[in-house]
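Aim 2, interim progress. The first record below pairs a target sequence with its structure tokens.
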Amino acid sequence: MKPRIALFIGDPAGVGPELVARLLAASDATERAEVLLIASRASIDEGIRAAGVHYDVTEGGGNPALVKWRGVDAPAFPAGQATRDNGAFMLEGLTTGVALVRGGMADALCFAPLNKGALRAGGMNHPDEMHWFAEVLAWTGPCFEFNVLEGLWTSRITSHVPLKDAPGMLTVDGVADGIGLLYRGLQSAGKRAPKLAVCALNPHGGDGGNFGREEIEVIEPGVRTARERGWPADGPFPADTIFVRARRKDGGGYDGIVTMYHDQGQIAMKLMGFDRGVTVQGGLPIPITTPAHGTAYDIAGQGKANVGAMRNAFALACAMGAARRGA
């Protein structure tokens, strides 16, 4: 059976409506999955207009099927504006998507880009949607964002914190847990025995302690601890070569990289494929994916949005949803 995907239109003031319209206009989306579309009628109409496509969305049936929820009759939102109203709309839409997956009516949640400023204006009291999801799901275990680009996954041990604080936040157990999260995340997408590499913190991997001792005292013991727990990984490797090593095509490459801080992995991933990257809300009890880019307010409603990352996020949600259904 096809997986069922709860697909949320994201920020209606951004490029989300256009991206979803472009995604659903291609027959392979509905051939791949049964789509439960969480959107307002106004946002669907705006997305179809901006994308220049034509198809029908049926409420309560068909594929895609428009979900009956509190926001389905919401009025149109001004393009390119982060307001309390579109923030509240997004929070309600995400809540609806989570409920569909938790209730067994969908296998995974995929959403178009969100605007954090609007989310906070609308009532989100969290640094990002990852922490919001954890609270809604009553999840107290470890969770991190994974970034995915064409088969290469990355995660990070520290995330939305000042860079000066990141070294002091690294612990042996934290490194091991981060490796375990990425290992299990890849397994949830169908990779039975993923190969992982771990990134060093300091230049040249610390150069034997000359440029810092975190590799010796924290990261290497964390890698050993992860292996003992059944999550094999290699490293740490210097940050300036780890992505070259991971992308080798001779059998020596890697499926995933664990980095130590936010931009250590994000810069490389976005340089390699800004319009194709996907974010996975990793470690949570349900599969959740989204494009790695933002709402692009500057081009909202103009028919210029690139659907590549949205298409990849949807495909990954389908893979993770199918794996979850078959588990």
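The second target in this work package is listed in the same format:
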Amino acid sequence: MILAILQARLSSTRLPGKVLKPILGRPMLEHQIERIRRSRLIDRLMLATSDDPSDKPLELLCSRLNIACFRGSLNNVLDRFYQAAVTIRPEHVVRLTGDCPLADSKVIDSTIRHYLDGGFDYASNALEPSFPDGLDIEVFRFSVLETAWKEASLPSQKEHVTPFIYNQPERFRLGSYKEDRDLSGKRWTVDEPRDFQFVEKIYETLYPKNPNFDMHDILKLLEQCPELEAINTDIERNLGYKKSLAEDKKQIK
């Protein structure tokens, strides 16, 4: 069984409440869920949010969309993620984050297929970035997640769920799924107000004509309207993880 767990919370520091910001009259997160549901390989989808009162609206959204919702630790995301997964104990787990409203089900399925065919413990399309930032997906064995939950100790390992796994290639069999072209310089995630502005324009242009638009439709639009990329392309990638690494150094000291 393949369980996909989508992480989301409303207390993001750079753009609070972003996952419920409306795009074409619907919450950003609802659009992302619609896109994930097109996956042919994911068996079940669950949202993992925090037990902080501020995240109650996410539980209500899940109820409306008929999606399982788990609520756990606000700051120890690894614990929250594991506790969500252990309620199902699937063989395989897919990790997705709620700041990726342009998630592509075809990319999700291709990464999962790469993981399964390779017999990996963990596989991702972000280990060696070649896809746009915002199409990230990680797939791993539940048993490996359980090991990380038992042994992880650093702030970065607890806040970002998987560094404990992918930083130990000598211990875990890692797989990297790559795009033929290097598209890693493109920014399709939502962390800042300008990111949301970019994504909103993509939806406003493509969704009314084709709600099933994919990565290639976005790339074609950006070729026709290169000014769209200028909205947010200068924002640094993985800034949150870099901040967590700084906290690791403080703890080690």
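The mean pLDDT is 93. This observation will shape the mutagenesis plan for the next reporting period.
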